[in-house]
Amino acid sequence: MRRLFPVTDETAAPASDGVPGTPGAATAAREWGLDELAEAYAYPVGVPGPGGAGGPGAAGGPGGSAAAVAGAAGPEPWLRANMVSTLDGAAQHDGRSQPISCAADMRIFGTLRGLADVVLVGAETVRQEGYRPARARTDFAARRAAAGQGPAPAIAVVSASLDLDFSLPLFTSPLLPTLLLTGAAAAPDRIAAAEKAGARVVIAGDGTGVDPARAVRALADLGLYRLLTEGGPRLLGQLVAAGVLDELCLTVSPMLTAGDAQRIAGGPSVAVPKRFELMSLLEEDGFLFSRYVRS
C-alpha cells in the first residue's frame, strides 16, 4: 500500500534508484498496519461516539476532514459509503462484489467496519451477499472501547417488505440486535416475525418504503452517529438522491467485466450532479482506494 494523494514530502520523495517513475524507500509498496489504516479512514473531527460523546476515534486522519460536524440541533451523524467498481463501472460480477475485490480491499472493508457504529445495508444485498453479523475483532477492541463503542457495529437492514429469512445468523446470533428500517405501512405479521427473531424494527417512512433522511436521523436518535453503508447500488442511489451521503470510499478494481452489471449507485438520476472532493488516494497491486467527501 502506498499513498498517492495528498502529496506530502514522503510521497514526493525522489526514487531511491534514480529511475523516474519508481518508488523511493519512503513510498515503496508495503502492507499497512491497522493503526495506519484506521488513521487514514478516521471519521472527521466532531462526529460523536455512541450516545453523543466524542472519543479518540473521532479525530481526523491525514485524509480526513478537519471541520467539526455539528448542526443547529446538536451533533450530526456522518454517513460514508464503501463500494468497489471495475474500470468499466461494474459494481458486481455474477451478482456479488467479492470477485472484483482483493485482499487490500478486504482489509479496508474490515477497517471501515471497525470504525463504524452501524452498517447500513439494503435487503437485496443481504440476500445476495449472504450477510452475517459483524464480528468483534481483537485488534479493534481497545480503539472501540476508547471511542465508547461496543465490540462490533450493529447491522441495519433497509427493507420495505421485510421479506427476509429471520432464521439466518444475522438475526439469530448477532453481538448487537440487528436493526430493521422499514415504513409505517409494513405488514404487521412481518414486523412480528422480525421482532420474534430478535431484530429491532425502526420505522423510518410514512408508507411502505424508507425515507433515507429519516433513516439516517433514526440511527442518530439511537446514538449511532458513525454510519457506514455497503450498498447495494439501489440503496446507495437513494442515499445520493436524498443528499444524505457525506463520504464515498471507492475501490477501483483494475478489471474489465463488460456485461450488464449494476453501477455502484442505481435508481433515478439527480437533478444536479453531486460534487465531491478527493481527500485521499491509496494504491496497492493496481487497485486504487479513494476517499471522497461532499463539497
Briefly summarize what is shown.
By secondary structure, this protein is an alpha/beta fold. The protein is built from eight helices and twelve strands.
Can you summarize the main beta sheet?
Answer: 10 strands, mixed
Query: What's the Cα radius of gyration?
Result: 19 Å
The proportion of residues forming helix, as a percent range, comes to: 10-25%
Give the number of DSSP strands.
12
Strand order of the largest sheet: 1-11-12-10-4-9-5-6-7-8
User: Please, what is the average pLDDT?
Assistant: 87
Global morphology: globular
Structural class of the helices, strands and pairings? alpha/beta
Strand content: 15-25%
What's the N-to-C terminus distance? 27 Å
Low-confidence stretches: 54-72
Count of runs of 4 or more consecutive helical residues = 8
Could you spell the SSE succession in H and E letters? EHEEEHEHHEHEHEHEHEEE
Structural account:
This protein has 295 residues and is of the alpha/beta class. It is 23% helix and 21% strand. The chain has eight helices and twelve strands. The strands form two sheets. A ten-stranded mixed sheet has the order 1-11-12-10-4-9-5-6-7-8, sandwiched between helices. The chain has a two-stranded antiparallel ribbon with strand order 2-3. The longest helix has 13 residues, at 103-115. The radius of gyration is 19 Å and the shape is globular. Residues 54-72 have low confidence and may be disordered.
Keyword list:
295 residues; single chain; 23% helix; 12 strands; 21% strand
